[in-house]
Amino acid sequence: MSRFEDLSFETRWLGRPREHWAELGSTNDRAMAWARAGAPHGAIVTADAQTAGRGRLGRAWASESGEDLYVSAIVRPDAGKPIGALGLAVGVGLREGLAAWLPATQLKWPNDLLAGGRKLAGILCEARWVGSSPEVVVGFGVNVGRALFPGPLADTATSLRRELAAPPDRGEVLARVLPALEAALAAFFAGGFAAIRARYEPHCALRGQAVFVDMSNGAGPKEQARALGLADDGALLVEPPGGGPPRRVESGDVWLAP
Ligand SMILES: O=C(O)CCCC[C@@H]1SC[C@@H]2NC(=O)N[C@@H]21
């Protein structure tokens, strides 16, 4: 039994209700089903592999390795709490947890963590409303142990194993990341994104960079701009080509210009 499997039966889960699966379609789907059945705030679903792991904008998340982290946490914010920038807060927590090994990890708006310019981790938050209360599944994948990536990911993705001479195992990573995530979410729910913006900005991969922006959720043309930073509510601020007042990007995707 690996240390990761050990951990699913240990107190290093810090008392959280948890399920660990050898294989699932998507930990987000399982967590949402568990939430509907009444699982409490903080409950965690993990899997060694996913057969239908997914990312934002309908993309697939390669999840077959058995060596990486696939995690979904059930989060039950208080009624009326804004959750629009929750994914950014998750990024802050993940980055701070992973900084134990890779302090230079950067945040690429809205939901990626980059190491050496390559994708190390991704975040997918999904919510449904129960009356006025959101029920949220915070899903994240961290490339921990895999050395090889399929197809185009070979040039764009990385892992702790690829970045470090002595990579940690998945259990160690999870044990660091979960408390960091909880701390970031607590600050976010107390004060909104403005309360953690200073923990995001110094690690923003886009600030000052030329970017292509798609402001229509994957369907529209890409527009060139320069990223300025983040607003207090988490929107990305960009300067249009030729100058002019900053424009807000609230959804969609952003690419660093080559
Ligand atoms: O980069 C992205 O677009 C987000 C990727 C999120 C992947 C994680 S892995 C655990 C959870 N289950 C899923 O199906 N997706 C998320």
From TrEMBL:
GO terms for molecular function: biotin--[biotin carboxyl-carrier protein] ligase activity. Residues 17-189 form the BPL/LPL catalytic domain. It is an enzyme of class 6 (ligase). Its EC number is 6.3.4.15. The keyword Iron does not apply. Transmembrane segments: none annotated. It comes from the Bacteria. Keywords: Ligase. CDD domains: BPL (cd16442). Residues 238-258 are annotated as: Disordered. This is Biotin--[acetyl-CoA-carboxylase] ligase. It comes from Nannocystis pusilla.
